[in-house]
Amino acid sequence: MTTRVLRSVHSGDGFHWVGDGFYVTQLLPGSPSLQELADPFLLMDYHPVKEYSPTQRARGVGPHPHRGFETVTLAFEGAIAHHDSTGAGGVIYPGDCQWMTAAGGILHKEYHEAEWAKRGGRFHMMQLWVNLPGRHKMDEPGYQALTAESMGKVKLPGGGTVTLIAGELDGERGPAHTFTPIEVWDIQLAADETADLTVTDGHTVMVFVIDGSLTTESGTVGHEQLGIFDREGDTVRLTAPETGARAILLGGQPIGENVIFYGPFAMNTEAEIIQAVRDFNAGLFGTLA
Predict the structure, then answer these.
(1) Where is 253: in which H helix or E strand?
(2) Is the pTM of this model over 0.90?
């Protein structure tokens, strides 16, 4: 067993609104060096617990395009509705995950689910952008509605649990289909529990702390901080404080390709970005009211 070393710890860039329904801090992307360390993850927006008053109006983000990657939305509290230009749609509730493959081009919109919005209440979520290799960036779009009941579950000896959305741990697997090896795990540790989690040597491994804090042999990741580990080693050792802790582990095989961002597009070359803009303007991403 070779334990991973905590390389760096990062905080968000302050809070801002995405549309009028998502109050987030952005942990990724960051500097070019941080983008390389986070590969294959392109973006991470975190919406902390926030109370929303009841409303009759749609609150969220209207139709917008994506190309070249996948969006992964995790619901912790509240309810998020989604519709896209392929005709896919649905609602994700606490414990669910929406895994949308934009690939060659899609329009989608996301907002607080109407019945939940009428009641109001606590809202808490995270959205990730996961890169696609160049050979898959122009694939057909897709949509996976992953329910809480479908997730893999691993019970830890100290009393905690790991919920597997994507990837494998101790013989259990998450339900997400991924183009490259990806790990998305929801880790809940009991008071003072230490967990040794098996990871793949060479994969990116990052841990974002939602509740409490986590101590490693080489440092601490605090509340709402993202810890990035060196890629050498097959074990991540995490210790919770006496209050316990909850964190999202993000891992995966680095793609190692050039990435160029332009708003909602993430491609390998400037020419591909220009083509994405042209295709969007020509209506090739479909229609969505």
Answers:
(1) none
(2) yes
